[in-house]
Structure formats: C-alpha cells, structure tokens
Amino acid sequence: MKPIPLNAETEQIARSLVWFEPPEQALADPVRFMAYAMARATHEQMRTIRRYVTDAEFRQALDNAPPGIIDSRSWAYWNSKLGRYPAPPLPSRRFG
User: Fold this and answer.
1) ω into residue 86 within 30 of 0, thus cis?
2) How far is the CA of 31 from the CAs of 1, 28, 62, 96, in angstroms?
3) Which of 1, 5, 66, 68 pairs with 95 at a CA distance of 20 to 30 A?
4) Per-residue pLDDT reduced to its tens digit, 31-47
5) Vertex 81, ends 77 and 83: CA angle to 5°?
6) CA 4 to CA 27: how far, in whole Å?
7) Mapping DSSP to helix (H, G, I), strand (E, B) and coil, where does residue 35 land?
C-alpha cells in the first residue's frame, strides 16, 4: 500500500484518529492508519481519506489490519462495502 501523503487535510485527520502519536508517525504506516480510520473516522474524514486510497489498497488494509483496532461492527461494514460478504474473521492476537 502506498503511503498516505502528509498535508493539511491528512494531518488534521491523523491528529483526530491517532491522537496519541504525531501525524507523521500515524501516516507512515498506512495499513495501521486505515484500521484506525475504519474504526473511528467520520463520514467526512473518510471521504477525504478515500481520495488517497484506492479500493485495492483499502482491501489490502483490511487483509493486513492489526488485531485489536477495528471493532466487529466496523469490520463487517467495511468488508460489506468492498463486496466481501460474509466478512472474514476479525484479525486476532496470537500468543505463543
């Protein structure tokens, strides 16, 4: 997945969604950033993000989403929006 550019729009969104780290760091990992966006972005924020992320990249973000970020409702919604029904299992943490 190509990086999401840092500009005034994406910086503001990154500050809002991934408030605990600098926007540059949040956007440096686009798959992780997209996981936060799928779980927390408003409709307007997602419209802005979608200008930078293709459907193929969105699917890639879903396929590689880190466990524990996306809730089950958001997971089902975004998979459905991208033509994946039923949604595959949520990413899960693996120990040992």
Assistant:
1) yes
2) 7, 9, 8, 24
3) 1
4) 999 999 999 999 999 99
5) 115
6) 6
7) helix
